[in-house]
Design a protein that fits this description.
This protein is α/β, with parallel strands linked by helices. The protein is built from 12 helices and 7 strands. The model has no long low-confidence stretch (mean pLDDT 92).
């Protein structure tokens, strides 16, 4: 609605995970490098954690874009499945036909696929988002998948993305075998106050802004206080704030506009 008024070519604060709009803080660069290192060096398991809305999925999609054509990848976004369903979902994400097969046959077909990829010089990567929702049984199934190997290399690199609860889960005694196999870990923290302003400006410029709209220092402070540096919350409140600016026909987004946006998001006033 406000795109034409502000001269923007796309919504700057869409909550969809768009790697093109990813703002790389030093922490995001470090997280990305950890994942790429773990995968390229065939470390087996990589773990990335962060609060809800911290940008883990967006960072993962940016990582996928950098892997190159010699990687076959499978991305599981909703791992709340039965063990049989999870195995089938993984195989299907890799493009393996497993319709009508039981779990053992599915694992065998997946193993055959992974060996074929080795023969043509490809590495295979499995990424599981929302991994904190995996049951202990499913986590054990994932660990067993990491046993698929040749004499000199793992056939499958596994990336676990999850909320901080994932770290607590993996500290359980019954999951110690899996925990010991995770050699690359990184926790993505929220943005600090200075980074919030840089993040907002980055997304505005990436979507075509040329000095307008702009947020006052007080408005940026209020965005930070509300969002606590979580990108998804920043996007939500900034989108509402731009709508308020459009309604008032103002390029300057101030403290009061952000306050109204926050109240609307919290359901305290009618939209």
């Amino acid at each position: 609605m406000y795109l034409e008024y502000y001269g923007l070519n796309e919504p700057p604060f869409n909550i969809n995970p768009n790697p093109r709009l990813l703002y790389y803080t030093a922490k995001h660069r470090e997280a990305l490098n950890h994942m790429l290192y773990g995968i390229r060096e065939r470390k087996g398991f990589v773990q990335l954690t962060g609060e809800v809305g911290a940008g883990k999925t967006t960072l993962c999609r940016a990582m996928l874009e950098q892997l190159g054509s010699n990687f076959a990848t499978a991305l599981i976004l909703n791992p709340v499945l039965s063990p049989d369903q999870l195995m089938k979902a993984i195989a299907m994400e890799f493009g393996v036909e497993v319709k009508g097969l039981d779990r053992l046959e599915t694992v065998a077909a997946l193993n055959e696929f992974l060996l074929e990829q080795v023969m043509i010089g490809n590495d295979c990567v499995l990424i599981i988002d929302e991994a904190q929702d995996l049951t202990s049984e499913l986590l054990e199934q994932i660990r067993l998948l990491s046993n698929l190997e040749t004499d000199d290399r793992k056939l499958l690199q596994i990336v676990l993305l999850g909320q901080p609860e994932l770290r607590d889960r993996l500290n359980e005694h019954g999951l110690r075998q899996l925990r010991q196999r995770i050699t690359v870990r990184y926790h993505l923290p929220p943005l600090n106050q200075g980074e919030v302003g840089q993040y907002i400006n980055h997304r505005l410029v990436a979507c075509g802004a040329n000095g307008s709209p702009w947020f006052t220092a007080a408005a940026l402070w209020r965005v930070y206080r509300y969002s606590r540096g979580i990108p998804r919350l920043i996007n939500a409140v900034c989108d509402k704030s731009l709508l308020a600016g459009f309604v008032k026909r103002r390029d300057r987004i101030d403290f009061r506009m952000v306050g109204r946006a926050i109240k609307e998001l919290e359901g305290q006033i009618a939209v």
